[in-house]
């Protein structure tokens, strides 16, 4: 449920990623008289290019060139949409600095960490002030929407009960030491031998009676350390080596040798197997109601933006060029 609320802005401002060759500062689009220049487009796509290349994407060859051109057009279209959204948002009224911070402060509470929030800012390429204006517009547009009724929630539950079934899950705790000699970008750097030795040292401490969750909180190098290494997963969700080792254990047992995966070396404690189950209506009623209310808000906002775009004065030179080329 938090994910639905957290990424409300993102769902309405999906950002494509592109790489383009440099232009000369020409205007590539206008939105109700506001310009988008090739320089702005170049800046956006240069950032995205770096991100894609880090993920191993290859833009070489004829196929890569075609993909880049498609992505370029998609990014400009999204920049147009974002500019239009901000124009509509600012028609509602000017937000004071204090009001911007108030809106952003409440929004940030929906994130598990400051890092996660900053990742969203990087993703949508918007400032905090821009996000505050859009959130304020969303609130104004949807504040009078009636909440869903119990009957509507019940109907949705009955129609989607099978999709809510939770498969069998295994609850474990684990301690991870990354293997990274400077080429993977992990938060900790160890050679293979160093990480394996750290894992073996932990196993030695467990054999001396140390508490697993306490050791995980002190020593593990991944995000689960804040919960004492707690991790719950279904078959197919964990890397194969981890899954195989965890399911081979009995409840209360831990691995007596470090488990190697692409991440590094793990020590795993199996806690319990959670049987497959379908939650009752009462268990999910509140969550479903909140989800349905948020979906109704998203729908209304999307409809508003679609109408605003239909009525806007927009020029897109990349789109015009593509249409001209298709006629030749």
From TrEMBL:
Swiss-Prot/TrEMBL keywords: Isomerase, Rotamase
Gene Ontology MF annotations: peptidyl-prolyl cis-trans isomerase activity
EC number: 5.2.1.8
One Pfam match: Rotamase
Boundaries of every PpiC domain copy: 167-272
This protein's name: Putative peptidyl-prolyl cis-trans isomerase Cbf2
Source organism of this protein record: Pelotomaculum schinkii
